C-alpha cells in the first residue's frame, strides 16, 4: 500500500533545523546547544511515525468500534491515500460502499493523487465496494440523508477560513441519514467542529485524545464522534 506523509514540508522543516542545529552544537562544543536540535529531531521522527504508522493504528481501532453493518453506505472526506477508506472497505460487502472524496492536493499529503489511491484499492481487492470522486467537502455532490456514516481523517483543518470549515461540517451533517454517525480525526479546530455540531442538533457528541500514535510533533490528534 502506498502511503503519503501528511503536510510533508512540516517534518522536513523539523529534520533540517535539527540537523543544522546539531552540526552547530558540535562545532560550538557546548552541550547546552544540543537541546533544541534534539527536540526538533524528535519532533520530526514522531511526526513521521504518526503520519506513516500511528494514524493507521488509530483508524483501525476507530473503525472497529464503529461496528459498521456489511451493507453500510459511508463517505470519507479528504480521503488522501485511503487510510480510512481501505479500513472501512474491508468490512463491507456489496451493496455496501464507501466513497472517498478529495481535491487531491499534494501540499496536504505527499503523492496525493486519485490514481495512487485507486491502485491501493485495487491491490487490496476492494474495488467492488469503493469509489473515488474529485470534489470539495464544502459543497458535497450528494443528496440529503444518504450515508450511514461520514468519516474524515486529518483533512477538515486544511479548509480555510473558519466559515468554510463550518460549511464542511454542515455538509457532512446534511448528507448523513438520521441516526447516522460522524467520525472526525483532527489535530486542530476540533472544539470548533464540536460547537458547530451542537448548533446543528447533533447528539452523543464526544471528543477523545488518540494517544501517542496521534502525536504530530507537539500536536495531538483528537477523535470526535457524533450522531445525527
UniProtKB/TrEMBL annotation:
Keywords, ordered alphabetically:
Membrane, Methyltransferase, Transferase, Transmembrane, Transmembrane helix
Note whether Nucleotidyltransferase occurs among the keywords. no
Q: Which CDD domains match?
A: AdoMet_MTases
GO MF, one term, reads:
methyltransferase activity
Q: Which residues cross the membrane?
A: 7-28, 34-56
Q: Under which EC number(s) is this enzyme classified?
A: 2.1.1.-
Pfam families, A to Z:
Ubie_methyltran (PF01209)
Q: What class of enzyme is it?
A: transferase
Q: GO annotations under biological process?
A: methylation
Family matches, as PANTHER family: EXPRESSED PROTEIN
Q: What is this protein called?
A: Class I SAM-dependent methyltransferase
Species source reads Levilactobacillus tangyuanensis
Lineage of the organism: Bacteria, Bacillati, Bacillota, Bacilli, Lactobacillales
Amino acid at each position: 500500500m502506498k502511503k503519503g506523509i501528511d503536510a510533508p514540508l512540516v517534518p522536513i522543516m523539523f529534520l533540517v533545523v535539527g540537523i543544522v542545529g546539531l552540526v552547530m552544537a558540535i562545532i560550538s562544543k557546548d552541550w547546552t546547544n544540543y537541546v533544541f536540535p534534539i527536540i526538533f529531531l524528535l519532533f520530526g521522527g514522531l511526526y513521521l511515525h504518526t503520519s506513516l504508522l500511528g494514524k493507521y493504528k488509530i483508524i483501525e481501532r476507530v473503525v472497529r468500534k464503529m461496528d459498521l453493518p456489511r451493507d453500510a453506505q459511508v463517505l470519507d472526506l479528504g480521503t488522501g491515500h485511503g487510510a480510512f477508506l481501505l479500513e472501512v472497505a474491508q468490512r463491507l460487502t456489496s451493496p455496501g460502499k464507501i466513497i472517498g472524496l478529495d481535491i487531491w492536493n499534494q501540499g496536504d499529503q505527499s503523492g496525493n493523487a486519485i490514481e495512487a489511491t485507486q491502485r491501493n484499492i485495487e491491490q487490496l481487492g476492494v474495488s467492488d465496494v469503493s469509489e473515488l470522486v474529485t470534489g470539495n467537502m464544502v459543497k458535497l455532490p450528494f443528496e440529503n440523508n444518504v450515508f450511514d456514516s461520514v468519516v474524515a481523517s486529518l483533512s477538515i483543518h486544511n479548509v480555510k477560513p473558519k466559515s468554510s470549515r463550518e460549511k464542511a461540517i454542515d455538509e457532512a451533517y446534511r448528507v448523513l441519514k438520521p441516526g447516522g454517525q460522524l467520525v472526525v480525526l483532527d489535530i486542530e479546530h476540533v472544539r470548533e467542529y464540536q460547537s458547530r455540531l451542537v448548533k446543528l442538533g447533533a447528539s452523543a457528541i464526544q471528543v477523545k485524545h488518540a494517544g501517542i500514535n496521534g502525536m504530530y510533533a507537539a500536536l495531538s490528534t483528537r477523535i470526535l464522534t457524533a450522531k445525527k
